[in-house]
Design a protein that fits this description.
The chain has about 110 residues and is an alpha+beta fold. It is built from two helices and six strands. The chain has a two-stranded parallel ribbon. Strands 2-3 form a two-stranded antiparallel sheet.
């Protein structure tokens, strides 16, 4: 979540900075500018590549977190371990097949 906020914040800052530079450039209409003229030491293609790299990195990490949250609990066969005990809590490892239930004493499907 924080990485998405950082990417959005960075892209908004870059957009505002680019629009401000374009506004200053249009004020000096008597000067002709090249399309690949460096803006703050970086060309627009370098800025676009940097932003694309950040977005690709954020997409890959965001996809992992979405996969973890939306994961489906796998099915267990009869006799397999279906839960783990963590102190007073019981954590489920898998769902037992239809017609069976997870025995909370043995922590297996029966």
């Amino acid at each position: 979540m924080e990485s998405k906020r950082a990417v959005v914040y960075l892209s908004v800052c870059l957009s505002v900075l680019t629009s401000l530079c374009q506004g200053q450039r249009s004020g000096n209409s008597h000067l002709l500018s090249a399309p690949d003229e460096p803006t703050l030491g970086l060309t627009t293609s370098e800025l676009a590549e940097a932003l694309q790299g950040l977005l690709d990195e954020a997409d890959s990490s965001a996809a992992l977190s979405v996969e973890k949250k939306a994961s489906v609990i796998p099915r267990c066969d009869v006799g397999e371990r279906c839960a783990m005990k963590h102190g007073p809590r019981i954590g489920r490892l898998c769902d037992c097949l239809r017609g069976t239930a997870c025995n909370t004493f043995f922590l297996r499907c029966y």
